[in-house]
Amino acid sequence: MKESISVKYEYAKQMLKTELEILIHSFEQKHGYMPVEHIKSRIKSIQSIERKLEKKGYPFTKENIEKHVSDIIGFRIVVSFISDVYDIVSLITHSPNIILKERKDYITTPKESGYSSYHLIVLVPIYLENVIEYVEAEIQVRTVAMDFWASLDHKIRYKFKEGIPEEVKKEMESYAKDIQDLDKKMYYMNQIMSKYQ
Predict the structure, then answer these.
(1) For the chain, which domains are there?
(2) How confident is the model over 70-118, as pLDDT tens digits?
(3) CB distance 133 to 126 below 8 Å
(4) Is pTM beyond 0.70 here?
(5) Are the C-beta atoms of residues 22 and 97 closer than 8 Å to each other?
(6) Which helix (H) or strand (E) covers residue 83, if one does?
(7) Is 137 left (phi over 0), alpha (psi -120 to 50) or beta?
(8) Which residues, listed in sequence order, are joined to residue 190 by a DSSP beta bridge?
């Protein structure tokens, strides 16, 4: 079973990667501007999937994987400015080859830690043995500043598995606000620069 799972998700990841590349390339051709700094993708290891199911209280079965793990395929799209986040989200959600299942805007409403990003859960159609299957994937779209903060946030949470001390939480909140302010300033600078183009 484990091998068939890997093949299916690898195929779906490749399909989604190709679609995203086409969408972003067509955006660049249309607007004469490349908003994407870089894209990263991954497939969760079987061990990570097992741990996630165990944490949720489910046994490792094909049905439970499909029902309770939505981020086996993960894409992270890092862009320059906040406005680019929403441009890329619009591109993805209007694609006829990607089905939107769920969205979470952590930019408008950041997490308690200050984490900001735009998350999409999508369904990718794949064709296996003359049958169409829809495979879930998570796409995160964020600015360079948000990506920096998310990486730091992850490391802090990993270090304090039993709970983050209040002193550290307060510092995190303060730094998260600095990151958000920086993104706003960069967006404003981009608006000024656009006058000279």
Answers:
(1) 2-149 (3.30.460.10)
(2) 889 999 999 999 999 999 999 999 999 999 999 999 999 988 778 899 9
(3) yes
(4) yes
(5) no
(6) helix 82-93
(7) beta
(8) none
